[in-house]
Write a structure and sequence with these properties.
It is a single chain. It contains 18 helices and 21 strands. With 489 residues, the protein is α/β, with parallel strands linked by helices. It folds into three domains: 87 residues, NAD(P)-binding Rossmann-like Domain (Rossmann fold); 227 residues, UDP-N-acetylmuramoyl-L-alanine:D-glutamate ligase (3-Layer(aba) Sandwich); 142 residues, Protein-Tyrosine Phosphatase, Chain A. A ten-stranded mixed β-sheet has the order 8-7-9-6-10-11-12-13-14-15, with helices on both faces. A six-stranded mixed β-sheet has the order 16-17-21-18-19-20, with helices on both faces. Strands 3-2-1-4-5 form a five-stranded parallel β-sheet, sandwiched between helices. Strand 4, helix 3 and strand 5 form a beta-alpha-beta unit. The two termini are 32 Å apart.
């Protein structure tokens, strides 16, 4: 397909996944170039590596010397660069096939699941990096400690996020696999939950004979796959015992999580306690060999970070990292941008942002925000941008339930992500349903100025304000309101 001295062109090179691959290929004597629809801080880092980046998609960017064009399922067939490549007879492949080439060439660790892929990938990468393994990595977010979404290491280890949204997880065949959870999502692509379960069934069934799959059996669907394949494959389980979950009725109603077959768990974290600052967790982890690492500490807010870190602990142990070093490296991990990230303080109110865009993710984030507001003596205000009309339609009732949690709920226009808006649901309908459910302070806004005015009318000292969603507006609005300055170069 392509080798050293090849010329590769990325359509949409500024995407978080595409930019990581472009940067890694550029270190392998491969001539890399690409285009992006607009400027982005991540592009400057690519340019510093000698990568040519065009702003805008133009057929003239595609010359005859290009050996292969890499695209994603987001790029449409009528894109001028795709059309030009076809006319010139240049092979066009998807990102997942390029990712497979990298994964097949190294001792790869792929992280898949509906939630937590980026966080777990970053944790594993950061732990291995701090532990002296110096892995290569392609992460679906900016790892804050390294200000990057990729790493070109000296080892033969490759840590990467193995996305299920377009079936990538069965294309890029990792030797070591992690499965965080299985829930309905991306139904616009997969069609049904049954299709998603079949995808992950294939993912586990294809575990390498000399590899292993690490499976979080807090999730019932993951546990079903573990039970199905445990006699055929090398499957290693991990889980955690939730903190004060019995007091949380709404969360208990979510169907696919909070399951705990403790006796079958190889790596098990328990005795969760909040740190004194309420900005992290203390816990114990029972290891595969029966030993217990006591009083481990991590600096992450949401409780599910303990579950995610248990996966990283298991991988580190599997690769032979000393237990004392595991204790040290997990305490130094610093997380990923846009995952419960502080943007700033305004007159004593805390401003945060998070990428949560599925009701399960959103509820976890909102639950932590409510706790923080309670500890601070303030109220919780949420600004949420729904991501895709199809997702809002598929999980409308769950989203309505979740938006009942903030004291003040602000709903922005849907980030349509190239979807047709005529799906019978939009932000107006969504906001009305939240009001009908009994919420007294729900606001539907159309732009930053409206959102800013509402927040300024209600904000008080010690409040917690969360800007949540995977869309672009909610990110811009939160960062503008907080005067947040990002730096990626």
């Amino acid at each position: 397909m392509f080798n050293r001295d090849s010329r590769i062109y990325f359509v949409g090179i500024g995407g978080i996944g595409m930019s990581a691959l472009a940067a890694i290929f550029a270190t392998q004597n491969i001539k890399v170039s690409g285009s992006n629809i607009c400027e982005d801080p991540i592009l400057e880092k690519l340019r510093q590596k000698g990568i040519t980046v065009f702003i805008g998609h133009d057929k003239n960017n595609i010359d005859n010397d290009i050996d292969v064009v890499i695209t994603t399922n987001v790029i449409k067939e009528d894109n001028p660069e795709i059309i030009a490549a076809k006319e010139k007879g240049i092979p066009i492949i998807f990102r997942k096939h390029a990712l497979k080439k990298l994964a097949d060439s190294m001792m790869s660790i792929g992280i898949s699941g509906v939630h937590g892929k980026t966080s777990v990938s970053a944790m594993i990468f950061e732990c291995l990096k701090r532990g002296g393994f110096d892995p290569n990595a392609a992460i679906g977010g900016i790892v804050k400690s390294y200000n990057s979404n990729y790493n070109v290491g000296k080892s033969n280890i490759f840590v990467f996020e193995n996305d299920e949204s377009d079936g990538c997880c069965i294309e890029a065949s990792a030797k070591i696999r992690v499965l965080t959870n299985i829930e309905p999502d991306h139904l616009d692509y997969h069609g049904t939950f049954e299709a998603i379960k079949e995808l992950f069934d294939h993912y586990i069934a294809e575990t390498h004979k000399d590899g292993a799959a690490f499976m979080c059996i807090n999730n019932k669907e993951v546990y079903k796959l573990y039970s199905k394949y445990k006699k055929e494959k090398k499957l290693i389980t991990y889980a955690y015992k939730a903190f004060a979950r019995e007091r949380d009725g709404l969360y208990a109603d979510i169907k696919y999580i909070n399951f705990l077959p403790e006796a079958e768990t190889d790596y098990f974290s328990y005795n969760l306690k909040r740190s004194k600052s309420h900005s992290g967790w203390l816990f114990d982890t029972r290891m595969h060999d029966g030993s217990v690492l006591k009083d481990l500490q991590i600096s992450y807010y949401c409780e599910h970070a303990v579950q995610n870190m248990t996966a990283a602990i298991a991988i580190c142990d599997y690769l032979g990292m000393d237990h004392s070093k595991i204790r040290n490296v997990i305490s130094e991990c610093n997380g990923v941008e846009r995952r419960f990230m502080k943007l700033g303080d305004i007159d004593g109110a805390l401003i945060l942002e998070d990428y949560a865009h599925h009701p399960t993710e959103l509820y976890e984030v909102f639950r932590e925000c409510k706790h923080m507001a309670s500890v601070r003596g303030g109220k919780f205000i949420a600004v949420f941008q729904p991501h895709k009309y199809s997702r809002l339609k598929d999980f409308l009732d769950e989203f309505v339930n979740t938006m009942m949690e903030p004291k003040i709920s602000i709903i922005t226009p849907v980030h349509k992500a190239s979807e047709d808006p005529s799906m019978g649901v939009d932000s107006d309908h969504f906001a009305e349903l939240v009001k009908k459910r009994g919420h007294k302070s729900v606001f539907r806004v159309n732009n930053y100025s409206e959102c800013k005015r509402i927040i300024e009318d209600h904000i008080k000292t010690n409040d917690v304000i969360m800007y949540a969603g995977a869309g672009s507006d909610v990110v811009k609005w939160g960062r503008e309101f907080s005067n947040f300055q990002e730096s990626r170069i």
